[in-house]
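testing teh design pipeline on a random one, pls ignore if ur not involved
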């Protein structure tokens, strides 16, 4: 679920996942 979020919002979601 989180990896697709990164593709939708690379910058903001990437920070959240990290």
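output:
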């Amino acid at each position: 679920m989180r990896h697709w979020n990164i593709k939708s919002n690379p910058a903001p979601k990437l920070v959240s996942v990290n």
